[in-house]
Amino acid sequence: DAKTTQPTSMDCAEGRAANLPCNHSTISGNEYVYWYRQIHSQGPQYIIHGLKNNETNEMASLIITEDRKSSTLILPHATLRDTAVYYCIAGSWGAQKLVFGQGTRLTINP
Amino acid sequence: DTEVTQTPKHLVMGMTNKKSLKCEQHMGHRAMYWYKQKAKKPPELMFVYSYEKLSINESVPSRFSPECPNSSLLNLHLHALQPEDSALYLCASSQGGSREAGELFFGEGSRLTVL
Known about the structure:
The structure holds 2 protein chains of 2 kinds. By secondary structure, chain A is mainly beta. Chain A contains no helices and 9 strands. A 5-stranded mixed β-sheet of chain A has the order 1-9-8-3-4, with no helix packed on it. In chain A, strands 2-7-6-5 form a 4-stranded antiparallel β-sheet, with no helix packed on it. In chain A, strand 6 and strand 7 form a beta hairpin. Chain B has no helices and 11 strands. Chain B is globular, with a radius of gyration of 13 Å. Classes of the chains: A mainly beta, B mainly beta. Chains A and B meet through strand 3, strand 4 and strand 8 of A and strand 5, strand 9 and strand 10 of B.
């Protein structure tokens, strides 16, 4: 699986869009980009995944660059409950071995 | 029901004890996972069961023994653990097979302390 690189921490004001970057320059053609988050003292929660096209669901949007070497997770209107560690993972379809990196600790400030 | 239920939530055990962690899901998922998470670190994969058979063992010491009695249940048997094994143990499940999409559903975890 490709290695991913994320900033260690980020801050965002409540109500603003939170944009979390992820670098996956060695991603292969059959690897998807997955995003999970882990709120303190809870298990990780799946957010979204994508291969080439941008994706949107009720939680977030995922923007993948054309060369697929990086992506951005967007939380459009961040709330205090979005404070969490966000993990970007690259893995192939059907992969059972999703490797979590260090993640980004996102803090939403009032 | 989209829950993965783990019991117990907290466990304290001595190094000579034998205990078990339990995980249950009723989503019809055919893949189940054990992850270990130390404080301020990301989850680390330990074991994967696919269709009730062990498919991945990430070179985990034999003092951890997984068991999958049926497609809804996953156990982790613990014996002769060390203090450094103290961690949050997370269970997860996914659809499995050709429908696998990397969407794992995690439980809240069992926090283990080894004295």
